[in-house]
């Protein structure tokens, strides 16, 4: 039997259009759109009709950078795939792309299978995987080809974290060369980790142990230098490059210069770099530990360059790098030594709301909001138009968004499995009302109606910008 849902009377916003339209959904996919009040729309019937009057009807968010259950620094990220995808849904995100991790000396396959097992049957919304390459060798290079065929078509390398995830320039070049042949997209954590480790050692020797020193040793110039080096290696390899969590004006400038040459180089930033700063890292009584992430928060003056990059398309995507650790018992591991504070912030639930606030604040337009949070990440990682838009044939991943509702972000009310909010007390306007994932309500008029296992693995094609 055909299952039909009709969304009436809302303002449909995609990356390309804004129109007052009704949306007809059949069996989990968008069947048709028609102007509200038109003869076509008036003729439609459905099993369920949702009144969207006064609300935006937008594509579900695509968060292409999350870390659920990630082992790091002697502990693990506090959100499971169950709690993390539930929180994503509450925040209007209907697809996440998480990172499977290869252990040094082990096959990619083993790491990917471990992440399949963590996610399978536990997710409230749809999910895909990138693959973290921790050990580039002849065997793992061959495995990259197989993963692309399997729908895991992007590979993350680290210029940071020596002894953990770090790859040297030769390994990075080899992986880029392989990706240039198999269609994979190389994602880069661009910080000069070798130099940073020297500065960490020197800071601790001087007795500089507080969280604010985390930001001081991970210098802007070492992000810019690594970004420049990654671009040049990609040029040598003939490979595309996607730089994750860009935080600083100088790194944006490196990406802009590469793009001005017509190179297939892309950049992502995150809400924490747009809304938070080193002021947070410097909060007293070890509270700054809540804001330790890498790349680190920067002085506030960098925010203008990031917003400008999003407007000029030198930055194309806003993801969260959601990697939560509780303050008690996890962030506290670094009391007396900032280098032992687990790196990461919670944010998967806050991204769509914060970016809507950015629309109200005049930083971006409504369509750009949808572009950087839904459409472009879907295109970048081979999911469009199945995800990221509202069009006939697309998955009915749809959010009814109330642009007038006011809320105060707080750990008291969020759904992420973490004991603090990075945006505690921030007043914003705009809130998710109803969320459909492939036509099924996960959030229904501010009530959670989803369940673990409702989300499915999505097979991704290759980057659609190449």
Short key terms for the protein model shown above:
466 residues, alpha/beta, 8-stranded parallel sheet, 14 helices, 31% helix
Description of the structure:
Helix 4 runs parallel beside helix 5 and helix 5 crosses helix 8. The chain is globular, with a radius of gyration of 21 Å. The mean pLDDT is 98. It is of the alpha/beta class and 466 residues long. The chain has 14 helices and 19 strands. 31% of the residues lie in helices and 23% in strands.
**Averaged pLDDT:** 98
Question: What percentage of amino acids are in beta strands?
Answer: 15-25%
Low-confidence stretches: none
Quaternary structure classification: single chain
* Main sheet specs: 9 strands, mixed
| Number of helices, where a helix is a run of at least 4 consecutive DSSP H or I residues | 14
CA-CA gap between termini: 40 Å
Rg over CA atoms, rounded to whole Å, is 21 Å
Q: What class would the helix/strand composition place it in? A: alpha/beta
Morphology: globular
**Would you report the number of β strands?**
19
> Approximately how much helix is present in the residues?
25-40%
